Amino acid sequence: MSKRVITFGTFDVFHIGHINILERCASLGDTLIVGVSSDELNFSKKQRYPIYDQESRLKIVQSLKFVDEVFVEHSLEKKREYIEFYRGDMLAMGDDWKGRFDEFNDICDVVYFPRTPSISTTEIIEIAKKF
Ligand code: CTP
């Protein structure tokens, strides 16, 4: 039976760490579905809007050859609904989230991948600000 993998993230100022995790997620199954967090959700989490708006972030992620479906994640509280609606057999996340999604083990397999070292959106923004 074909396996559907789901993952979530902001994917702002797209970088190699994003590519690596999406590639790893895709390698777990046959179909990769990516929930891209909305601009408002980011504002509520970090008190700042992403540099790239949600339409741009969605378009970037959707254009990757190993991504099959994308949708906008509007609420952190709806993870379970999203997993069920998109029929995820597996939820895969970077290990900065380790343990935080274990509650969904009752509806799918939950996997955490090591982050790519030494790169993040926050760090890129900080470096860019210095110029
Ligand atoms: N990720 C990763 N390795 C990195 C950066 C991110 O594996 N170096 C993963 C995260 O663990 C997550 C996904 O990429 O599963 C999306 O992360 P996101 O928060 O959008 O990227 P960050 O670069 O971590 O952004 P920020 O600095 O704003 O937290």
Provide an overview of this structure.
With 131 residues, the chain is an alpha/beta fold. The protein has one domain: Rossmann fold (3-Layer(aba) Sandwich), CATH 3.40.50. The protein is built from five helices and five strands. It starts with a strand and ends with a helix. The mean pLDDT is 97. It binds cytidine-5'-triphosphate.
Percentage of β-strand residues: 15-25%
Total beta strand runs = 5
* Ligand types: cytidine-5'-triphosphate
Count helical runs. 5
Ends distance = 51 Å
CATH architecture: 3-Layer(aba) Sandwich
The overall pLDDT, averaged over residues, is 97
> What overall geometry do the principal axes of the alpha carbons give?
globular
Structural class: alpha/beta
CATH fold category name: Rossmann fold
Order of helices and strands: EHEHHEHEEH
What can be said about the biggest beta sheet? 5 strands, parallel
- What is the CATH C-level name? Alpha Beta
Q: Specify the helix fraction band.
A: 25-40%
Q: What would CATH call the homologous superfamily?
A: HUPs
Strand ordering within the main sheet: 3-2-1-4-5
Number of domains: 1
Write down the oligomeric state. single chain
